[in-house]
């Protein structure tokens, strides 16, 4: 189906697109190339109309100088892609259970909780998948407390994650027994059970903004899948340094299957496990 054209009286010129692209990159670390031009233009026009700005110039002034930054957040919510489903790239959850957690537990010298950070969280499928995987397939769950923190730059998608309502498509790869055990059937989909909703802490964070991530520390594992592909080399380097600071020595980062840290950072050790390749913050040596 051919998409609806933008209203003829609101035009995003090449110069406007460049201005906006540079502004959005500075705010979020996300860079749109020209192949995303239609996607970007359409959402800009939506917000120009919704705010009665009348033109890109007026709207861009609002974006830059609004004291509350509410419009920047609204536009960020529209510009970020949140396409995911339960048990996506399941081999990494298997790696977590079979390889990463046994190694983490073996070197722990205290009984503090094992901490896992999922960023971006999108609408919650990934952190909830990890919670289900641990409950079902990790014997250590009976001996250790696990904290799961899930973060995203999109406040709208965080609200959806906390609500925990999912379409049939989102849960289609879940084993039927898990669906029955952890979800309630709704009129047009499923809602995840209250115990799991309460087991994940959802927070808003911009991984390109150091002030946002300063309090994120002492994680054992970070899942950051299919985010770095939207970053350029500078933003990718910032993100990898942020994750390094957020990890305990010996902690692990799991990326999407098409992503790599090898070019952007030498901080990490590449670990090849039977299930997956992950990146490890080296253990401190005395």
TrEMBL record:
Which Pfam families does the protein's record reference? CheR, CheR_N
Q: Which residues bind S-adenosyl-L-methionine?
A: 82, 84, 88, 126, 152, 225-226
Every CheR-type methyltransferase domain range: 5-284
EC main group? transferase
Which catalysed reactions does the entry list for this protein? L-glutamyl-[protein] + S-adenosyl-L-methionine = [protein]-L-glutamate 5-O-methyl ester + S-adenosyl-L-homocysteine
User: Which UniProt keywords are given for this protein, alphabetically ordered?
Assistant: Methyltransferase, S-adenosyl-L-methionine, Transferase
Question: What PROSITE patterns does UniProt report for this protein, alphabetically?
Answer: CHER (PS50123)
This protein is called Chemotaxis protein methyltransferase
Species of origin reads: Thiorhodovibrio frisius
